[in-house]
Amino acid sequence: MINKNDVVTVKIEDISSEGQGIGIIRDESTGADACGFVLFIKDTVIGDVVEAKVMKTKKTYGYARLVRIIEPSPDRVTARCPVARQCGGCQLQEMSYEAQLRFKQNKVANNLKRLGGLGEADYVMHPIVGMTAPDEPYHYRNKAQFPVGCDRDGNIKIGFYAGRTHDIIDCMDCCIGDPVNEDILRIVRQWMTDNNIKPYNEEKHSGVVRHILIRTGRATGEICVCLVINADKLQRYDSLVGELAKIDGMTSIMINVNREKTNVILGRHCETLWGRPYIEDCIGDVRYRISPLSFYQVNPVQTKRMYDKVLEYAQLTGNEAVWDLYCGIGTISLFLAKNAKKVYGVEIVPQAIEDAGNNAALNNIDNAQFFVGKAEEVVPEFYKNGGEGDTDSA
Q1: Which domain does 25 fall in, by range?
Q2: CA 206 to CA 247: how far, in whole Å?
Q3: Region of residue 87 (phi > 0: left; psi between -120 and 50: alpha; otherwise: beta)
Q4: How far is Cα 102 from Cα 342, in angstroms, rounded to an integer?
Q5: Cα–Cα distances in angstroms (integers) from residue 189 to residues 224, 236, 260, in the given order
Q6: Other Cβ atoms closer than 10 A to 232
Q7: Which of 8, 97, 199, 237 could share a disulfide with 148, CB 3.0–4.6 Å?
Q8: CA 335-340-345 angle, 5° bins
């Protein structure tokens, strides 16, 4: 029987989808699971033998706090980020990258078996394609959203939420973000301090700056900074624009208005303070325009590899009609367009479809057509109305 406040020794055998280590308390006399009791323990790695204090129990499982590592896993490494354990953004930084890849591949295989009901003969699992030097696996993200708040002394905090909370962990040099983010955030914080611009307070629904959104173009070097504000207009921004515009690659400085009492980060309205209302980036030889509201894959290195795999597996001959369901701004459909007879994209967000059409025009692609709506409705209706395509790929 496992009770709250028990201190137990357990070996970590798996990782949950939330990144917590999974250990099973076993009956030493039989080797069997003791009542099938599972413990979820944060900050552990598969293969660790740990001492943990039980904090909460249910009938067949519980949650425990790591007390100490008795025997570290051979896959355990020192996290590069000093706030990795506090921040809710990364759960696997103390696991080697090679082990992370194995874990993710096993997770997919287990889901196919347990959730999909497939036997091993029913699917083919190719080796996972991970990142390689010099990209492995840091500073790859082309998008970051930093909440802004205050500590108890009124000092401005910019960083990320701690896990399962809205407490901001002050962190401006995130190891998986673009290094330019730190320079941008320091400029914004100094401007807020100098001009008495208040951070947003969730409880009181007061203050101005809620989030700072930064997007970068990996291939182009272009940068967009967008302040999400709890106001219709941003006051005293000239000095902010002046400093941000000095950064190499700065292309777009914007605000996004979000006056709702909500956890949703972005509002619907954006306004350009300086530069263009978008940045551009490339995947392969296709160029894309990206606004603050656009969906765009956040890992450009792996996106290119993934799209290359799609192209390889599709084996297009130039006679096919390709459907890109949930197409966003048309990234994958436009990437495939030169190899297909026709590409169609479907997306429920009207602005994304407008962006997709603009991206097709930007690249002089004339064999792409995009639809606003639900994929399960648009595609049947298309063929019901006489739409043609020699081969349909989704």
Answers
A1: 7-71
A2: 30
A3: beta
A4: 37
A5: 17, 14, 23
A6: 10
A7: 199
A8: 60
Q: Which residue has the tokens 């890109």?
A: 324
**Please, are residues 255 and 229 in contact by the beta-carbon 8 Å criterion?**
yes
CB atoms within 10 A of CB 24: 17
| 55-65 exposure pattern, b = at least 16 Cβ within 10 A, e = fewer | eebeeeebbbe
Task: State the pLDDT confidence band at 28, using cuts at 50, 70 and 90.
Answer: low
Give the pair of three-digit tokens for residue 255: 């605000």
* pLDDT band, very low/low/confident/very high, at 207 (cuts 50, 70, 90): very high
Domain limit, last residue, from 264, 283, 302: 283
Q: In the 3-class helix/strand/coil scheme, how is 382-393 assigned residue by residue?
A: HHHCCCCCCCEE
Contact 105, 125 (CB under 8 A): yes
- Tell me 337's DSSP state: G
> 210 with 275, same domain?
yes
Residues 151 and 266 in one domain: yes
271 lies in the same domain as 327 = no
Asked whether the beta carbons of 374 and 348 are under 8 A apart, the reply is yes
Q: What is the pTM of this model?
A: 0.93
DSSP states along 110-170: HHHHHTT---GGG---PPP----TTTTTSS-BSEEEEEEEE-TTS-EEEEEEBTTS-PEEE
SS3 state of residue 293:
coil
Six-digit token string for 260: 């709702």
Per-residue tokens: 212: 């700072």
Give me the percent of the chain exceeding a pLDDT of 70.
Answer: 96
Task: Answer yes or no: is 42 within a domain.
Answer: yes
